[in-house]
Amino acid sequence: MCMITGLKFFEDLVNLFYPRICLACGNSLYAREEVICTYCRFRLPKTNFHLLRDNPVQKAFWGRADTESATSFLYFSKGGMVQQLLHHLKYRNRKDVGIYLGRLFAIELQQSVLFENIDTIIPVPLHPKKQKKRGYNQSEQIALGMNQILKVDLLPDALVRTRFTETQTKKSRYERWLNVGEMFAVKNKYALRNKNILLIDDVITTGATLEACVHGLQRENQLKVYIGSIAYAFD
Ligand SMILES: [Zn+2]
To answer: How many Å lie between the centroid of ligand 1 and the Cα of residue 45?
Structure first.
């Protein structure tokens, strides 16, 4: 067993005996609670953008990417509970946080006519080196949770990164931003023809990665793209 695999195995083992505490407030969880306590669940900073046609997330993509509807489940704020939850998902091997938040997000989306046609879910692919280090793609975990509710086609490998970002590290931030548009491609374009695709990410900040994904999806395919992220970091 190599060291990284061994480490992951150890982390998984530890998580089996993880103390059952709310990841937002630290209180003990009751038997039926997962990830966060009921109190914290009701104080999740929901955006309710999925109910608004021209919401701030949708507007962020105007003129940049052709999307049917776009939304984020929660507001992200520095030091807030959403940042804390996503930190556990990304850096503490807590895949269950992604699945849990994905389920809650999907339950909300089911209430919206703006997202009713979705037949395919695709998570934003992680950089392969990052995925190897982390052991999983956090957006795929979110997508898995969402699909437990939505029960459509989940295609985690449909979109691939066409270029390693290492080649871009020497460039300026602006140059990288310009370049990002060429970083994604569809593996099998026929599989996605005429699909209504929900693209999933963990956080929307600049939206550049999602924009690049939409372009990658639409380059040679007749399809519609919807965007959903767990969090929205606004300026
Ligand atoms: Zn709590």
So the answer is: 13
Å from CA of 88 to ligand 1 middle: 14
Cα 225 to averaged position of ligand 1 atoms, centre (Å): 35
- 184 alpha carbon – ligand 1 mean position (Å): 38
In angstroms, what is the span from residue 171 Cα to ligand 1's centroid? Answer: 42
Which residue ranges does the chain devote to CATH 3.40.50.2020?
Answer: 47-233
- Report pLDDT digits (tens) over 150-192: 999 999 999 998 865 555 555 556 555 555 545 899 988 889 9
β-bridge pairing 184-186 and 70-76: unpaired
Distance 95 CA to ligand 1 centre (A): 18
Other C-beta atoms lying within 10 Å of the C-beta of residue 84: 15
Q: ∠76-139-52 over CA atoms, to 5°? A: 50
179 CA to centre of ligand 1 in angstroms: 41
What global pTM score does this model have? 0.86
List phi, psi (to 5°) of 108: -65, -45
Residue with tokens 């060429």: 182
Task: Calculate ∠ Cα 36-41-42, nearest 5°.
Answer: 155
pLDDT tens digits for range 51-108:
999 999 999 999 999 999 999 999 999 999 999 999 999 999 999 999 999 999 999 9
Class of domain 47-233 (CATH, top level):
alpha beta
